[in-house]
Hints:
Helix content of chain B: over 70%
Radius of gyration of chain A: 18 Å
Helix content of chain A: 55-70%
Structural class of chain B: mainly alpha
CATH topology of chain A: Aminoglycoside 3'-phosphotransferase, Chain: A, domain 2
Mean pLDDT of chain A: 94
Oligomer: heterodimer
Strand content of chain B: under 5%
Order of helices and strands of chain A: HHHEEEEHHHH
Structural class of chain A: mainly alpha
Largest interface: A-B, 26 and 34 residues
Strand content of chain A: 5-15%
Distance between the termini of chain B: 37 Å
Number of strands of chain B: 0
CATH superfamily of chain A: Aminoglycoside phosphotransferase (APH), C-terminal lobe
Low-confidence stretches of chain A: none
Number of helices of chain B: 6
Strand order of the largest sheet of chain A: 1-4
Largest sheet of chain B: none
Amino acid sequence: MNNPELHAQLEKDYVEIVAKVHGLDWQALGLSSLGVPETNRQRAEEAIAGMEQAVADNQYSPQPVMAELFSWLKRNIPRAERTTLCHGDCHIGNFLVRDGRIIAVLDWEAPSIGDPMLDLGWSCMFMRTVYRDFWDETKFIRAYEELTGVKVNKQSLFFWEVLAFVRLICVGFIGIKTGIESEDLDMRQLGVWPVLTPLLQDAAARMLGF
Amino acid sequence: MGTQITTLMLERCAQTIEQVVIPNLPEGFALEQAMSIARVLHFLAPFVEEKCQELREENEAMREVLGKVLEALRGEKALSRNAVRKGLIKRLDQELKKVEVGPPDVSEENHNLKAALVETINGLDALTENLPTETMSSLRQEIRSVIRQQLDHGTARAAAWWPPPELSA
């Protein structure tokens, strides 16, 4: 990331690939088998319900912070303006780089047909946090808009970014419980998530103004 | 044992792992584990002493806001037949009227009040269409202030430990 030319090329590759994934004709590719949402809120509703269950299954005490975050999400679900193939775990850490170019996209365990804002929100959340050195999320969105010709609805993007934070927080809950209860004595999850989870909760709350 | 001794002991454990155990471990899984353990012990050490006071503060704030919600709900006579309202009033009344038998258990009280707060947040969501906008907005703001206090308690220690030393090197 210290090489400006290389960095610029990776930014270009990244946004081009994300735009390409969203531009694929998923029906012609036979990807309807992933499940096609019946309403334009369905994917968001499913995501929220899944995360609520994850917290319920993995918490050790009641979580008012999470209740408030879920409350906001449920009250602010946007209408999906497009239905595309979504990667589901879209961030630079899942893109393989060789000789200064992205050559592959990894970790396709969570693909879906739905609102591409899922990928944009997740990407932006990672650009605000773990991959701050990679790209500024505003520039990424502008580049995406220029490439796709689609104006990104900023309210919708905001919702999906908040959801992305909450989703990563849920990973934290699972990580903590796994670290405490799994049979193999591995402390690595407990060395990270008990510290990172409150910071992510704080970041999500501040996005919502409290 | 007083909390201060517990804090000192945990710090000592972390130092011993860092200065005695880690330098003598080869690279690999065992070394990673030892580093994680030292990090967790450092993180927990101040926790014990501070936590009691924090819990008391949180409990006081939660009691206050739940009391305000209870008062607001009782005031909404037009909703006297609303099942969600009735259920929430009963729940909050029970929680706030609880009488401690024996020495107070701050931690258990915190757990119970948080459970009541979660039910309140969900209950208010169900009453969104029924309660006046101003009342709902005011109650949500009060609840958020209480949650902000809990977040500040949680992040105060976490921020001092992120990123962990080996990740920031």
